[in-house]
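sanity check this record:
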Amino acid sequence: MNKELDDQLCQRYPKIFDDCRRTMCNDGWFDLLDVLCERLQFWTDHNRAPQVVVSQVKEKWGELSFYGQGGNQEQDGMITMAEGMSARICEHCGKPGTTLVSGEIYLTRCQEHAPSRGSVAAEQ
């Protein structure tokens, strides 16, 4: 993720990104991460849930992988939902996308950003 967007997440959610670790994914998932973090922090602040603290955010197998400590069952569900939604959002631009395989690499892309030799990934 570009530094400007990454910095926005760190500034908006300093308790989640306590040491401002950098996200290792593309810009297209910024809105998804922004909403996820807003909901996680809201749940902590208004429901006395444990604080979620990120240890790593990255792309893995064409989907968002959000690793953290803390939280509760409801917050774990929010994370699982966001990770699943990322398989339908282009990681470059945020438009609707599909998880593709290009060689041995998995990526989630819209038609505009899809590689010319990518094929639709089998359901996992």
The first helix runs from residue 3 to 12. Residues 3-88 form one domain. The radius of gyration is 15 Å. The chain has three helices and five strands.
